[in-house]
Amino acid sequence: GTTIILVTAEDGTTEITYEVNFTVAPNNDATLSDLKINGSSVSGFNSSTLTYDIELSSGTTLVPAVTATTNDINAEAVVTDATALPGTTSILVTAEDGTTEETYEINFSVATGFNRFDLNGEFAMYPNPTNGEITISFENKIKASWKIEVYNSLGSVLYTEDLSNFYKSEYKFDFSNFAKGIYLVKISNKDDAVVKQLIIK
To answer: What is the pLDDT of residue 75?
Structure first.
């Protein structure tokens, strides 16, 4: 708005008008206040956290519906759904100023039908995400006929190896020839199985 100041001189006729124009700078808030999957808020959502990993029930084939609510009513959120599962849905938030942007991502994976066992934390895989090279370590040296299998998102086995031949507690693998994406690494013997998600970036 505008505030007008009219100044009249002592002679009663000479006048000068001053104007002060007030404007409000556009908001630069490009954050979300809520993020929902199929109508339910994402557990642990925080406006400053931009990436979320969500595991869907085994057998899920439809990409979940994602809706986003902006902190600033004048900001705009555009949701780009994942094209398939596993996959990533992105939410681009543009602030009122038209230049400030934030991108939120939800990485969807689908649980396999494998039985999962904790094994008391004996199995670790790192780094994850990785460019392809990973280390798999066990708390103790393997004393049974363990096997590693790597599956793609379609459930096809891309790699398999018998670990018991080495009888050691740490193994290094190079999957840098794999395409970027989400894979499942299964460590198993005749009694137990452990499945962990591996992300190759």
So the answer is: 97
